[in-house]
Amino acid sequence: MTFFAKLHPLIVHFPVALLTSGVVFEIYGSLKKDEVVETAGRFNTRLGFWCIFPVLLVGFLGMLSLNNTEKFKDYLANHLSYAFLTAGAFIVAMVVSRYFQNKFGRVVYFLALSAGLFCVINTGYYGGELVHRFEVPGSAWTP
């Protein structure tokens, strides 16, 4: 199971990059009325959304293998909370964009995207602290 704890920090960067760039491009494209940029952002956001589920699964399986979590339990709890809030915010965004295609739906969609971006950033912060400050899962970068 420590395999998953070591794999998670390696694969998480792809959906983080897709979600971050997607939200930024979508908001920028919408504000500047640039349909090409907005469409590229929408593609990144949706691909990033689907990529978070395997990363969540691998992270959860990795978490089960951790020992001596007492010294970093608050960081782990915050990392886990923000990870699920990230998924929730983007689920709301995807549902709203699919079923509420009016002006109000568009406002809610961009609010959900913004909340999702905030959660992604916080998830990354706490995950980075786990890896770099507490060296979770321990020697993850050594062969």
Structural class: mainly alpha
Structurally, the number of domains stands at 1
How many H/I helical runs?
5
Order of helices and strands: HHHHH
Average pLDDT metric: 93
Low-confidence stretches: none
Q: How would a textbook summarize the main sheet?
A: none
Indicate the percent of residues in helices.
over 70%
> Any idea what the shape is?
elongated
Question: Would you kindly provide a written description of the structure presented here, covering whatever features stand out?
Answer:
This protein is mainly α. The protein has helices at about 1-10, 15-30, 35-65, 75-100, 105-135. The chain has one domain (about 1-65, about 70-135). It is built from 5 helices and no strands. Helix 2 runs antiparallel to helix 5 and helix 4 (about 75-100) runs antiparallel to helix 5. The radius of gyration is 16 Å and the shape is elongated. About 30% of the residues are buried. The model has no long low-confidence stretch (mean pLDDT about 95).
